[in-house]
Amino acid sequence: xxxxxxxxxxxxxxxxxxxxxxxxxxxxxxxxxxxxxxxxxxxxxxxxxxxxxxxxxxxxxxxxxxxxxxxxxxxxxxxxxxxxxxxxxxxxxxxxxxxxxxxxxxxxxxxxxxxxxxxxxxxxxxxxxxxxxxxxxxxxxxxxx
Length: 145
Hints:
By secondary structure, the chain is mainly beta. It contains 2 helices and 6 strands. A hairpin with a 4-residue loop joins strand 4 and strand 5. The mean pLDDT is 83.
């Protein structure tokens, strides 16, 4: 199993993270582990371990936020991680096509989103027909909704 440790300077909700590799470790997974919230024990005689906050496990195919680093004893560390769904599946997210109904900077007035306030004023007009009608008392025409 390979574990690559990174220093992540990006926001948690960024799809593409700005990461710098700190260290790559190879070893064997001795116990069962969750793919979503793995807890990995590492033996390392270095303080380098404390200079990272992000990881990648190619066998799981996912990037992880390192939520907690616990010292078990000298040279033995426990890493509690949680999957970063945005970075792990960034290619699939970027290749999706969608109609974005609400955006911070741009919007489409033709899409009804219920949050954009509009005002609808009825416009009424009455027209007299010069020759009149023989079978009708009135004509009603409605445009729009």
